[in-house]
Design brief:
This protein has 7 helices and no strands. By secondary structure, it is mainly alpha-helical. Helix 4 runs antiparallel to helix 5 (92-112).
């Protein structure tokens, strides 16, 4: 009998390895830096460091909290079903699962890690406000 959990962990590990290998590829790293520089120029020189730091904190939260990590995994499974299973989005099960995820996620986003999510939202808002106020963009 196939151990699906072990197989899924193996596949996830391979995906992480591939992502790490891709990040260490010089051309990809260079393109990433250039793209970030371009975005920052559209935002009148506003750095994206605030968003990056906020995302890093949320990633660290998930690494250190198995309950949160499991919630992200459940959300990932749900999104995959919506995107890959024809008609699933129209089923009552889809609605029930979405409500369950929303209800269980409130614990993390409105209580336990609220300040981390607010920091992310604030940093995104500041960046896009800077984009809005950039003189060339306004012109």
């Amino acid at each position: 009998m196939i151990d699906y959990k072990q197989h899924a962990q193996h596949v996830a590990g391979k995906g992480a390895e591939s992502a790490d290998a891709l990040k260490s590829e010089p051309k990809v790293a260079g393109a990433t830096v250039q793209f970030r520089t371009l975005l920052e120029r559209f935002a009148n020189g506003k750095s994206m460091d605030g968003m990056q730091n906020a995302l890093d904190q949320i990633y660290t939260d998930a690494q250190n909290d198995s309950e949160l990590r499991n919630w992200w995994s459940s959300l990932n499974d749900y999104v995959h079903r919506i995107l890959l299973e024809p008609g699933y989005i129209l089923e009552d099960d889809s609605t029930r699962e979405a409500e369950k995820l929303q209800k269980s996620g409130k614990h993390f986003f409105e209580d336990k890690y609220r300040s981390h999510w607010e920091n992310l939202a604030d940093s995104i808002q500041l960046f896009f406000t800077a984009m809005h106020h950039d003189p060339l963009n306004r012109r």
